[in-house]
Amino acid sequence: MSHPQGKKGSRVVEGHVARKRFGQNFLSDDRVIQQIVASFQPSTEQNVVEIGPGLGALTKVLLPALGHMQVVELDRDLAARLPNTLAGMGELVIHSGDALQFDFAPLATAPGAADLRVIGNLPYNISTPLIFHLLDQVGVIRDMHFMLQKEVVDRLCAEPGSNDYGRLSVMVQYRCQPEWLFDVPPEAFSPPPKVTSAIVRLTPYSELPSPCRDEKLLAEVVMAAFTMRRKTLRNALGRYPEEILRSTGVNLTSRPETLSVADYVAITNALAEAKP
User: Fold this and answer.
1) What is the reported pTM?
2) Is the peptide bond before 160 cis (omega within 30 degrees of 0)?
3) pLDDT grade, residue 15 (50/70/90)?
4) I want to staple 201 with a disulfide (CB 3.0 to 4.6 A). Which of 154, 179, 261, 262 is the partner?
5) Which residues, at least 6 apart from 99, have a Cβ–Cβ distance to it below 8 Å?
């Protein structure tokens, strides 16, 4: 099926010009939509928020199954269309705004309740910062199901020692259990992106496997390590006292991508303990 062209080569999808600056690629394959919903397993009265519902392709299936849901949509034109698109399917609360700036905590049913389920086809250009934004709010989140560029999903799920393992892997796996679910080809979208996508499930731990005493310091240590990932750990973490690093038992001649999440937490805890 061909798509009429909008200005500057943009595609018109269901009367809407897909905006490149918002990274808009609309999911249009019913089989893939059903596969996503089956993996998400919505049921009545779950507390669900969808990020970037777009033209409502996924929302049309989720909302009747849930009875009530919330969405966060940056594009005001799309947000204005949703009430008509989804009329009579259930109770819909629309938050018109930027998910990168959005406070998800008030959406929990009670203070501190980790019952919020998050789902979305995330724009590739903001997927990593948006995931970090959500990691800061995992105290209210039960799980997250995202459509992402496949290479991002590979990094989220990567194990130590692999080429895909890096800062994103460590920081996400510190807080969540990531699970690749399935790949999605470009032709499942309108307009089709130039890359393969994948669905990932991120489930925050109710109890952290490796609790860190100073999570801000952990982020700094991991950033420093992977900024110089081809160097030895001794060189990559040269700003920190070597005797403290050595006290953890971690091999300082190894490279940053070979260390586990627990190793990075051990280093951070040792540095935190040595602070005056």
Assistant:
1) 0.89
2) no
3) very low
4) 179
5) 51, 52, 72, 74, 120, 126, 130, 133
